[in-house]
Design brief:
About 50% of the residues lie in helices and about 15% in strands. A 5-stranded antiparallel β-sheet has the order 1-2-3-5-4. A 3-stranded antiparallel β-sheet has the order 6-8-9, covered by helices on one side. It has a two-stranded antiparallel sheet with strand order 7-10. Helix 5 packs across helix 9, helix 6 crosses helix 9 and helix 9 runs antiparallel to helix 10. It starts with 18 loop residues before the first helix and ends with a helix. This is Phosphotransferase. It comes from Actinacidiphila epipremni.
């Protein structure tokens, strides 16, 4: 983990990335991930010095492609330093947080977008909505989303759902031909058809700023508000897209209980009704997102996760 540093003084080698981060970045990003990991300790040490931060500890169970460090500023106030890989999903995270201004989401204190670095308000990292009973968790999740769904600013940098899913659909067509996806061909065709129809009619649906990766694990307990969202992969588009991940939350638990298919369909209907979105559009996006993610997991060797997501899509 590296030795703690006083504000303004980097540790000798910088805090070391936790094993979970090393494992996921190496598996998902290959050589580019290994190069990023090699530079990460020095990058974090530089940020600690430049922003005059003192380290408390690295969060071992932090992000999958980002390093999370609990810090204190030079006034002793607690904060979180997040340093992640910059890609098309993450490059505008800081812009979304700035636009929300702490309304429904963690507050952005400082950012260096080129380095994928943000200084964030300290939340309770060990208490997410998944600590609540499911009915209560879904109710709280709906309330947070309603605060996040605001019009984007004029000249915003965010990509659209239609463009983003169009690119993902192209990759999904390519992966359909791979041996690992042979058993999923019919589901893939259904998902591609859903994406084409939904993206083609996106102009008829109101556009808002979306979280993009919204699930119960990305909503943490806070001090100034009970629950705040973290880790957005922001897009602009229709609300139903943001609900697609929430619809399959706690999937392992859902799959293990009797009547999983009925429960999944009922959840779609309840979410659509509670947040006033079209249930068929939500179902279509849930199918596409689950199939696209499931096939991606298969492509990187994550068969268990991939097959579970594909099973969920089949229920819908």
């Amino acid at each position: 983990m590296g030795s703690a540093a006083r504000p303004g003084q980097p540790a000798d080698d910088g805090p070391q990335p936790p094993e979970r981060l090393v494992r996921t970045v190496t598996a998902w990003e290959g050589e580019a991930g290994r190069e990023w990991l090699a530079l990460l300790p020095a990058r974090v040490a530089g940020l600690l010095a430049d922003w005059r931060l003192g380290v408390e500890r690295v969060v071992a169970a932090g992000g999958q492609i980002s390093m999370i460090v609990l810090v204190r500023d030079e006034d002793g106030e607690p904060a979180v330093l997040k340093v992640g890989m910059v890609n098309r999903e993450t490059e505008h995270e800081h812009a979304a947080l700035a636009h929300w201004g702490g309304r429904g989401a963690v507050r952005l204190l400082r950012a260096d977008p080129a380095q994928g670095a943000m200084l964030l308000e300290r939340l309770r990292a060990d208490v997410s909505l998944r600590s609540l009973a499911e009915p209560k968790a879904l109710l709280e999740a709906e309330g947070v989303l309603q605060r996040l769904w605001v019009p984007p600013a004029e000249g915003h940098p965010f990509r659209s759902v239609a463009d983003t899913t169009g690119e993902l659909a192209g990759l999904l067509r390519e992966r359909r031909e791979a041996a690992y996806a042979a058993d999923a061909a019919e589901l893939i065709d259904q998902a591609l058809a859903a994406q084409a129809e939904l993206a083609g009619s996106a102009g008829a649906v109101e556009t808002v700023l979306l979280h993009g990766d919204y699930h119960q694990g990305n909503v943490l307990a806070g001090e100034r508000m009970p629950w705040l969202a973290i880790d957005p992969k922001p897009l602009v588009g229709e609300r139903a897209f943001d609900l697609a991940w929430l619809a399959r939350d706690r999937l392992s638990t859902l799959a293990a209980q009797p009547g999983s298919r009925t429960t999944a369909r009922r959840r779609i209907a309840k979410l659509a009704d509670a947040l006033e979105v079209d249930a068929e559009r939500l179902r279509g996006w849930a199918v596409f997102r689950a199939v696209e993610a499931g096939v991606w997991y298969l492509s990187v060797g994550g068969r268990e996760d991939g097959e579970l997501l594909l099973e969920f899509a089949s229920w819908l």
